[in-house]
Structure formats: structure tokens, C-alpha cells
Amino acid sequence: MTTRLAILTNMPKIYTNLKEIRNIVAREKPSKTVLVTSRILQEKLSWAIKLIKPHETILIPDGEAAKTWRCLEKLLIHFNKVGLDRKGLIIILGGGTVGDLVGFAASIYLRGIKYIQIPTTLVAQTDSAHGGKTGINFEKYKNQIGTTNSPIAIVVDQRFIKTNSHAQITDGLGEVIKYGLIKDAQIVKLLEKQKVSTLRESKDLQKIITRSIEVKNYYTSRDPLDRGIRQMLNFGHTVGHAVELKYNLGHGRAILHGMVKELEITEKLGLTKPAVRGNLLNLYKNLGIEYTANLKLDWRTIVRDKKFQGDVIDLPVVIQEGQSKLVKVKAAKLRSLLGL
Ligand SMILES: NC(=O)c1ccc[n+]([C@@H]2O[C@H](COP(=O)([O-])OP(=O)(O)OC[C@H]3O[C@@H](n4cnc5c(N)ncnc54)[C@H](O)[C@@H]3O)[C@@H](O)[C@H]2O)c1
Ligand SMILES: [Zn+2]
Questions:
Q1: 164 in contact with ligand 1, CB cutoff 6 A
Q2: Is the pTM of this model over 0.70?
């Protein structure tokens, strides 16, 4: 019980207006604020940097290229150069890549110093900034090296989404729809009235983002080390990861595909109500998301993914929108259900 309480009270506070950053910093009284972002975002999001007014700014490469040892080392050298000490505060501005690298750096520099996440993509606002996972890619593996370490605060300001591209919104929707299916049917309801092309301007966007964060936090707070119920968040990811690798699809788009395929499997097992898959395909159609049926899967890629324990997988099963459970399925059974 004590542990559970400790976990829940350690959850970072979430703010929805960037203006709050001044108050957060004033309360923390750091020796120095160091903003880390990419050069591209420094230009695109200059309005936000003017509000943040950091003492120092460090620029890192944009996108996945940032999540390397080399960039990590360079960043740590920069922390030294700008004289960041234990009472300093790092402010992270950017998408999931910036968040993952800089969150990792913040957790190991001087054995860990405080940081704030300001996620700027739909993926980062609803997924990567929450749950405390940080890290970089290593050899050919994604997110292989990292820590579990949360920021002191997360600022989820809807204005950042306005400049997200159509592809970024689609990617973000992969996880958002997943949250709706596994835990909060209201998210699916809210999305029924949307289109990918107009979601950025929607009056419901904040509601959709907030409810998504609540679902992610529901699972991560109950299972911070990712050993049990948090695996529910892998819904769509067993098939999704295989599709992502084979077709070089964006992560979110691969998950959109993976969810349909996994529903097909659990429907065959008699665990999912048959209407769920049809409703999901309709939702994609309404939103304007292209869905390509019959993408080929590679069994070896599915097995190599880290989700199997021995020859058993805890398969996330959506029973109906907003209701789900984990079910143990043997590898051979899954393979035959997938027809591989
Ligand atoms: N830590 C976790 O729990 C977790 C969860 C999910 C994903 N991730 C990681 O997140 C990363 C993907 O995140 P992402 O999709 O945000 O990618 P990203 O950080 O690469 O951002 C994508 C692009 O969007 C641009 N961008 C960011 N904000 C913008 C804005 N407001 N307006 C216009 N352009 C903007 C960036 O410059 C970048 O080129 C992956 O590395 C993935 O592994 C981590
Ligand atoms: Zn995902």
C-alpha cells in the first residue's frame, strides 16, 4: 500500500498552459534553467522559447538521429560547459526523440537532476512524455539503453499540435485510439466526430489528449517497472512492430494496422465482440486514415520482439471498446491464428 501511494504521489504534475512554466520555475528556484531542443524546433517554436526564457539553450539533432551514445555524450559535455549543477533544472522542448534522449541524460548527469518535459507532438503529449521511460537506441535496437525516471512536471499545451504534420497526427492517433479501445470508450466516441485533417483545430482535442494521458497513467502508475498490467499498453504492438520493421512505417501507423489484426485474432478466439473490428475500420474511414488490409507478416520478427516469455505471450485482448484484459497465448497458437 505504501509503495502504491509513493508511486502515485510521485507522478509528475501536468499543466495545460505553457504560461505555467514561469510559476513552476519560480517555485523550484533552480540555480540555472537549461533548455534542450533541436535546431529545427528552435525556429519553429520560437514563440514558446520566448515564454520559457531559459538561462541557457542547448541544441541537439532533430528526430531519431538524436538517440545515440554520441549525442548523449555531447549533451553531457554541454551540461558541463554551461555549468549545470545539481540544483539546475533542465527543460525539454520537443517530440519523443528529444524527450527520450534528454530525459536519459537528465537521469544520469550528476546522478540525476530535475527536469520538465514540454512535449510538442501528439505522440509525445499522449505517450512518450508520460510513464518515465527514457533512453537511446543501441546497435540496431530501439530504446535498448535507458532508465525509468520521471520529470517533475509535464506541460501539455495544445498549441504545439497546431504545427504537427498530417503524418504526425496520424501517428499520434495510433496510441490515442489504442487508449480508447483498451480503457476509455469515450475517447473513441470523441474521435467519431473528427477527421485527421481538422483534429488540430478541434475543440475536443484537449479532452482527447487529457483522457489519453489518464489511460497511460492508469497503467504506468500501477506497474511502473512494466512487469504486469502495463503490458496492456502493448495492444496492437505485437503485430504492429513487425509491420513497422518490414514496411518501414511510422510507429503509430503500424499500430493502427496491428490493432485490426490483433482484433481479428482475439475475435477468432471468441474473446472479442465481433462488432469491435468493424467499428474500428469505420472509425479509420471517418477519420480519413488509410488502411491497407493484407500486409504480409514475418513470424521471426514477431518472435524476436521482446514480448514473449518463453513460448508464451501475454496478449492484450480488447473485449469491447473500453474493456480489456491480458490473456496468455502460446506462440504456436498465435502463429496458427496469424496463418504464418
Ligand atoms: N519513452 C516512451 O515511453 C516512448 C513512448 C513512445 C514513443 N517513444 C519514442 O518517441 C519517439 C517518437 O516521437 P515523435 O513522434 O514525437 O518523434 P520526433 O521527436 O522525432 O518528432 C517528429 C518530428 O516532429 C517535429 N516536431 C516536433 N514538434 C513539432 C511541432 N510542435 N510542430 C512541428 N513539428 C514538430 C520534430 O522536429 C521532428 O522532426 C521515438 O523515438 C520513440 O521511440 C518513447
Ligand atoms: Zn507504441
A1: yes
A2: yes
- Position 140 scores a pLDDT of 85
- Count of alpha carbons within 13 Å of 226, Cβ hemisphere only? 10
For ligand 1, the distance from its centroid to the CA atom of residue 124, given in whole angstroms, is 6
Is residue 147 within 6 Å of ligand 1 at its C-beta?
Answer: no
Q: How far apart are CA 54 and CA 35, in angstroms?
A: 6
Nearest-Å Rg of the Cα atoms of the chain is: 20
Cα dihedral value 83, 130, 24, 187, nearest 10: 150
If DSSP codes are grouped into helix, strand and coil, which group holds residue 293? coil
Helix then strand count (H, E) for the chain reads 15, 11
Residue with CA nearest ligand 1 atom 28:
120
Q: Per the structure block, which three cell numbers stand in for 111?
A: 546522478
* Contact in structure between 94 and 61 (CB atoms under 8 Å): no
* CB of 137 closer than 6 angstroms to any ligand 1 atom: no
For the Cβ of 83 lying below 6 angstroms from any atom of ligand 1, the answer is: no
In angstroms, how far is the first alpha carbon of the chain from the final one? 44
**What is the pLDDT, as a whole number, of residue 2?**
37
Give the tens place of pLDDT for each residue, 135-170: 999 998 889 999 999 999 999 999 999 999 999 999
Pocket probe mutation, ligand 1, options 98, 123, 230, max atoms within 8 Å of Cβ: 123
Span 96-144, pLDDT tens digits: 999 999 999 999 999 999 999 999 999 999 999 999 999 999 998 889 9
pLDDT in tens, 287-314: 999 998 888 898 988 888 767 888 899 9
Residue 222 CA to ligand 1 center (angstroms) comes to 25
Measured CA to CA, the distance from residue 37 to residue 98 in angstroms comes to: 7
Cell of 309: 516469455
User: From CA 192, how far away is CA 175, in angstroms rounded?
Assistant: 16
Report how far residue 122's alpha carbon sits from residue 301's, in angstroms, rounded to the nearest whole number.
Answer: 27
